[in-house]
Amino acid sequence: MWKTILRRVLVMIPQILILSLLVFLMAQIMPGDPFTGLITPDMDPQTIEKLREAAGLNNPWYIQYWDWITNALQGDFGKSYTYKVPVAELIGQRVGNTIWLSIVSLIFTYLIALPLGMYAGRHNGSLGDKAISFYNYISFAIPVFVFALLLIWIFGFVLGWFPTRGTVQTGLAEGSLAYIWSRFYHLILPALSYALLATTVIIQYLRTGVIDAKQEDYVKTARAKGVPEKVVYNKHIFRNSILPIASFLGYDITGLIGGSIFIERVFSFPGMGRLFIDSLLARDYSVITALILLFGLTALFGTLLSDIIMSIVDPRIRIE
């Protein structure tokens, strides 16, 4: 298996280079440049032109790409024109928030989806199954930013149960229990906003898997031997029904990181998603290209991670 993983990593190298080229060219064809926002009626055009020349924006695209990719391989993604700090440092300040938001969202997603999927599959056709199916239809149809705004209004403003912005209460000593609890408390509402909508696919796959597994011979044999119904579902049916979901776990992790853009924007959460939107509005190309490249890399590694997880969950499957 390790040899296969190494081969996959080697195959990813040209994929990463192609991805970096596409990201760079996409940034090149975007309207304007980082200095466009500085242009005012009183601004001397020659001053702007000198800034563009100093930044290398007047060089041919292939020279700009070569300079960018060689520096990126050394961890230097340039300097943010908006924040006036190195891009790597800027992303480093935000990446932790996005990772924690993604982890908590993933935990909430599976804590909600697995029991609902098992119940719907075990009692298919019941009133509870129909209610879960209705919830699935709603969660699939409603946009994430609309749902997030609805939860903010209900739980943030009407009930006042959760904070609606930021990552931690001000004035707390970093590392203290109060600080750690405040960090988690600020994560609950945005994580739930994403998790409640991300359960749709998991519930549907698990429900279908349980319904199909109930008809399998090994289940009938277990029941004929007098195995308790709870054990039949929790040990035999669940183990086989979870396989399709396990294969998507790597994609779920990377999808959460990319999908946090809307949640972070709505909740004013200082993560990579919000940084991406702010950089787009400011035409901060050095930050945009670095973030898109990072999102693309996580998607590539998500594919590899899904294969590894699948081989661990099901010993019959090996990466070939």
Automatic annotation (TrEMBL):
UniProt keyword Translocase, yes or no: no
Transmembrane segments: 9-30, 99-119, 140-164, 184-206, 242-267, 287-313
Domain of life, per lineage: Bacteria
Record's bilayer topology term: Multi-pass membrane protein
Subcellular location: Cell membrane
SUPFAM superfamilies assigned to the protein according to its UniProt record, in alphabetical order: MetI-like
GO terms (BP aspect): transmembrane transport
Domain ABC transmembrane type-1: residue ranges: 95-306
Protein name: Glutathione transport system permease protein GsiC
CDD domains named in the record: TM_PBP2
Family stated for the protein in its record: Belongs to the binding-protein-dependent transport system permease family.
UniProt keyword list: Cell membrane, Membrane, Transmembrane, Transmembrane helix, Transport
